[in-house]
Specification:
The protein has helices spanning 54-67, 82-95, 137-145, 186-195, 197-214, 219-223, 233-236, 264-273, 282-291, 308-311, and strands at 29-35, 71-76, 101-107, 110-114, 124-130, 133-136, 152-158, 243-248, 301-304. With 318 residues, it is of the alpha/beta class. The strands form 2 sheets. It has a 6-stranded mixed sheet, sandwiched between helices. Helix 1 links the parallel strand 1 and strand 2 (71-76). It is globular, with a radius of gyration of 25 Å.
């Protein structure tokens, strides 16, 4: 009897389905809109600084943010306290990661306090006049430096003293018949500083100390000698992790004007944006805005960190 032995069937190869590469997570976008039609006279030496159009500016910028899918925070007049603004900035810094977008808009008075840390050529630190106290420019830049590397930050500032971070000239007075300028009168600025000198001096020293511990280069000193298009920007500010674009309401020696409904700068920006029909980049956006304003008010543009790619993008693109 012959026994036939069959060879075992070849093992079937296990076929593993190939998964398509995961799509990158969509960018997150947050925004903060600050608009003050007045300030608390208790802090500002009995000066309330009434303006007409700043809350409307904040509302309109929030509308743009919402239309682009951002999650907005709105702080108007009495809501726009130092604590509320700083809390919103810090919350955004913790939430956002590389590739995300943060839009920060301010409409209100610009002010000044004496510089006690020695980095300002004119011995004055510029400020945003919040409802219950001023936010010093050094504070703002320190808060922005806390955002993660690769976060894109767009700052739109419709106030005086907003041209660059090296503001060494006094804004020109408003033309006869024009709307009031968005600047705290120098006499009020001096009185407000004297009234709260210990607070502002201690605040500046604390900011300088924290910046030093964090290894953050003081941007006022760095940008004093660096043009926007300079190849040295990324080298000088290599420790400034996020990419920041600031488009301001005016040059150092000019005045940002209030208006009946919008400020001159914000109103022109809205006109150029035209409900999203503008298709250029940030540099072109600023240039077209400038073309529609009088020579007495020329919006400026400067950057912090590595913002070359950011500049080429369409405004407000998430």
């Amino acid at each position: 009897m012959t026994t036939t032995t069959r060879s075992p069937a070849p093992a079937r190869k296990k076929v593993t389905a190939t998964k398509p590469p995961a799509s990158p997570a969509p960018a997150t976008a947050l925004s903060l809109h600050i608009g003050l039609n007045a300030v608390n006279p208790d802090h500002y030496n009995h000066w309330s600084g009434e303006l007409a159009a700043c809350e409307a500016d904040a509302d309109d910028m929030r509308a743009i943010a919402t239309s682009k899918g951002m999650k907005p925070t709105l702080l108007r007049t009495a809501q726009a306290t130092r604590a509320a603004v700083l809390a919103a900035l810090r919350k955004a810094a913790k939430a956002l990661k590389s590739g995300d977008l943060f839009l920060l808009t301010y409409s209100g008075h610009g002010g000044q306090v004496a510089d006690v840390t020695g980095e300002e050529p004119d011995r004055q630190d510029e400020t945003w006049c919040l409802f219950d106290g001023q936010l010093i420019d050094d504070e703002l830049y320190l808060e922005l430096s806390k955002f993660a590397a690769g976060v894109r930050i767009l700052v739109l500032s419709d106030s005086c003293h907003s041209g660059t971070v090296t503001r060494d000239a006094t804004p020109a007075p408003a033309l006869h018949g024009a709307h009031r300028p968005r600047t705290m009168p120098p006499a009020i600025a001096r009185r407000t500083y004297r009234q709260h000198q210990a607070f502002y001096d201690d605040l500046q020293r604390a900011v300088a100390a924290e910046a030093g511990k964090a290894g953050v280069i003081e941007p006022d000193a760095a940008l004093a000698q660096v043009a926007v298009t300079s190849s040295r920007l990324t080298t000088v500010l290599s420790t400034f992790a996020p990419s920041v674009i600031l488009i301001s309401g005016c040059q150092d020696n000019q005045t940002s004007m209030d208006g009946d409904f919008n400020g001159a700068f914000t109103g022109r920006l809205l006109q150029v944006w035209n409900n999203g029909s503008f298709t250029g980049n940030y540099t072109q956006f600023r240039n077209v805005i400038v073309a529609g304003l009088p020579p007495t008010q020329t919006p400026n543009l400067f950057v912090l960190g590595s913002a070359a790619t950011f500049l080429t993008q369409r405004p407000f693109a998430v």
